[in-house]
Design brief:
homotetramer, mainly beta, Jelly Rolls, Endonuclease I-creI, 2 domains, 9-stranded mixed beta sheet, 6-stranded mixed beta sheet, 21 strands
């Protein structure tokens, strides 16, 4: 029997850190809650908290200690209002520096109408040229979530690291399991920054920013130590690296995937090299935030042969 | 009626430059030829030319002048011998610097048996742990191809740039069309460095290196000027950026994709921003070579709505 | 008349954040205090607090509010014990990745004898080849100091940012004035991580780590807003950028120096460009820490002509 | 007795490559010649060759073979006309991406009056704010010089690499000795791109561009193999790394300096680490060109103690 907590948030954090736990849960428990959007607007479009990817939580996982792994399983991530917003221009640092002058002033935003039944988004006032773009199917995800970092740090929800945070990876959707290293007692899981849809890279600085209803479970992997977030979407196992430049994010992710293959599948780094050389896949999470996110992954079907 | 040239190469180049044309062709002509592998070994396993991604060609496209675009359509890319080789270890620069000491000496190689009928590759002597990996399906591609660069340059086939070159992108397979800016008269198209299979990033420094039979056509897009290679695989239109760090490759590719949307689809950069923000996809070509390769792409089905 | 505070620290922080003020001072006040070394050892060689660049403070500057500038003037920075320690090997990320295997295991340390009278450091057990290196003159500096960052963040003393932090720049010595943006009430100035000597880049991961006696003053520049740390060493005015890659640190520093020229010397960016183009100097602070530090500077003698 | 060649160039190259030798010289010979400026203008202000850092030479050093070292000693580098030109704006990639919009259009140039007697440069039409800047003393240098690269490459004079090229380092002045790896028979030394003055980084894309009279000698260091350019300015020995990002240039330079210490001074990398850790200095050559330049150096006075 699974314990299900219906959690109504009343306070939000724009850093991920060792904040007062909002709720204590046991390994395996499920939490149903909601998140405001990146600007602090809730499902009624009310501005209830300052912007900056405000987080719901943190959730204290009983028994979690430094050196353990906290697993989150996202059961559902659903936009809970009918409008979302995106940036109007690709960010200057995602194009050639001399091309920045060819873009506009960088200001402004686009609003999107969200059809919660059909699961689609459509530009409210499409800029000239996109009048007939029409509906895009949702791919709801969370941009920013993770656990309290080590050493009493409180890290801005603008950025990311070993603890997760603002990874802005479009692959973090319902059905995905994400593991985090535990740095403090209880792990202290935070979540927020929902996107109804987002391109790779988050190059306009946003996905379709929207408040979300989220249902997830937390599990404790006692005694299992990892260094960077890992994930499983049913098809791939993944490791996430967060850093700038993207080259360094790639290095972190590749290294963690080699460790995963050793730890979970018994492959030493020679075998890991031979496998990944021809079979690794990289995804680009974001190339917008202070730390970029790279994902290294390999098919589970290949690992099942071994 | 298409003119088909059967071209038997006798000389190979390890730079891409303004070399003596090996064959002159008209726009629309098809060429059937073959390439040695990256080490200079041909379809019989004979070492016929020094290694370093030796190129077949160059092919002179009649009428091509600086400011035009040369289009290559790859009809088939097929391994023509039963063995290929890969590097044994992930490269030091693809993992965390402190992790390099955890890898082996970095030397050595793996040989793969290629079943040309079934289109599969299998490790000849799998390292411990991969004994049951079995067959991997081919995804034959060319790692290095492109046109002579401007200004009399002769650029090593180890690296890449606006002219193409050693992009090592696994998406460059049969069925794909790739466009290059023309920098010199005749364009001077070179090709080589076939891989029966390759992971994203080419992190062991190789794909499954093998000689190839290749059939392709060259078209002249007179008066069309582009800055970086572009491609079309039937599902996506793409722009390629080649540089280090990967961040800069991403900037080149994103910028060129915005230009493509303007030039080919009439979208100004405001509309391009709104579309790409939620719909762009990035692929990682290589993170091994002196210049890394990033691919920015967007679905053709979306563009057809506009 | 200057108020002088003799401050005896009893508690140390390994993050820079909105910690309880250790002392409240008025603008212009002078503080005499001491710092433990990066490992938490004091002037008696006692391990009195956990390592990680533990900070003395924070000092609350009366009247300082977000948008102001906090100025620190370092009057003296003096090693207060006769031994210091350095890392034994250059860090893997400061050499070519393939060269890492040519270095040793990266472990170990060197101890240095400090002659506090003569102001010199000498290797206690020089590795073979350095037996006759002899004495090196001190150039005492602080590696890590700064103000509480915005938004309730608590940032690890391993890294740096707009708030200062672990910049590890050898130019931050006695006689230098450093300005910081104020992000929180009171500014909350922290200091620690003394080095008797350090090369550019801090490539072995340390300077000669030692506890210090420090005397400094804090001034409030009411209503003056800056974005990144700035400094004045009598000969140069400087702006500091902290980021990875070093390219981005250079961008931050160059931008802030252009702003400084406008704000303090009335030069618009056109004039700033003409001046800096031929007269800017860059220093490399560190290329070891999570964020690298670059310093952009220009001679005060040139500015005095204008 | 030194052989002195007075060489009058008639042809210039905008790539560094295996071009027809312009003159053959023996080890120890001195050459007196001149260079056009980066735009192809000579000492009379005549436009005699296309721009792009056109090179005088190449000079064939008798006996030089791959694996040797070619040494150039610059005896004098003197502007030979009374006007030079600089870019008007700092380059977009040297400032924060969002700050690019705060700069002007990036176009335009400044002309400088050069007083060849006094050795000073003064803005012809100073932008507002710099009217009283007055004279700046020359520090004449060459921005682009080097030897033919391996493998038949011809590398654009816009960029740099192991072979030297467009390093744009202000430390390359008269009195300095620079060593290059020899990649082809005769080494094939090229030189050009004189700057009467240049800031660190070359952030406006130019120094004060001017034609030069140059006197230099070439020496053959038979059998000595190096990987990257090295230099000696009397006070420091140096190693140069050319790459992007600057982090990689730093890695190349640091690695080559460790090799230099081993090869020329018998210090293994453990001793090299201990020395460089506290004594290395870094200079920033350029952060403008396709490859950035970093210089790692250490005082000769320290090495003489060993």
């Amino acid at each position: 029997m699974t314990t299900v907590h219906d959690f109504e948030p009343t306070h939000f954090h724009t850093t991920i850190g060792s904040h007062e736990p909002a709720l204590r849960v046991a390994s395996g428990d499920t939490i149903r809650t909601w998140t405001v959007d990146s600007g602090g607007y809730d499902g009624n479009g009310e501005h209830i908290t300052p912007g900056g990817n405000p987080q719901t939580g943190p959730f204290y996982l009983e028994g979690a200690e430094p050196g353990d792994t906290l697993r989150v399983r996202f059961h559902s991530i659903r936009p809970n209002r009918a409008r979302g917003v995106t940036g109007a221009w690709v960010a200057p640092h995602t194009v050639d520096p001399h091309f920045v002058r060819r873009l506009g002033d960088g200001d402004g935003e686009d609003w999107w109408v969200l059809d919660l039944e059909r699961g689609t988004a459509e530009l409210e006032n499409p800029p000239p040229g996109l009048e007939s773009l029409g509906e895009l199917p949702f791919e709801p995800m969370l941009g920013c979530f993770g656990v309290a970092p080590a050493q009493g740090q409180a890290i801005s929800c603008a950025t990311s690291g070993e603890h997760g945070g603002n990874m802005d990876y479009r692959g973090f959707r319902a059905g995905v399991t994400v593991d985090f290293p535990v740095f403090v007692e209880g792990g202290l899981f935070h979540l927020g920054d929902g996107h109804a849809l987002q391109g790779d890279g988050e190059i306009v600085g946003t996905g379709i920013e929207v408040s979300m209803d989220v249902e997830f479970s937390l599990d404790l992997l006692k005694g299992k130590t990892i260094r960077w977030p890992r994930a499983d979407d049913g098809t791939f196992v993944m490791a996430v690296g967060n850093a700038r430049p993207l080259d360094q994010a790639i290095q972190h992710a590749t290294t963690e995937l080699l460790r995963l293959l050793e730890q979970d599948h018994g492959l030493d780094h020679r075998a890991g090299s031979a496998l990944l050389g021809q079979c690794i896949r990289y995804d680009v999470g974001n190339v917008y935030d202070p730390a970029y996110a790279a994902v290294a992954k390999v098919e589970k079907a290949l690992l099942e042969r071994l």
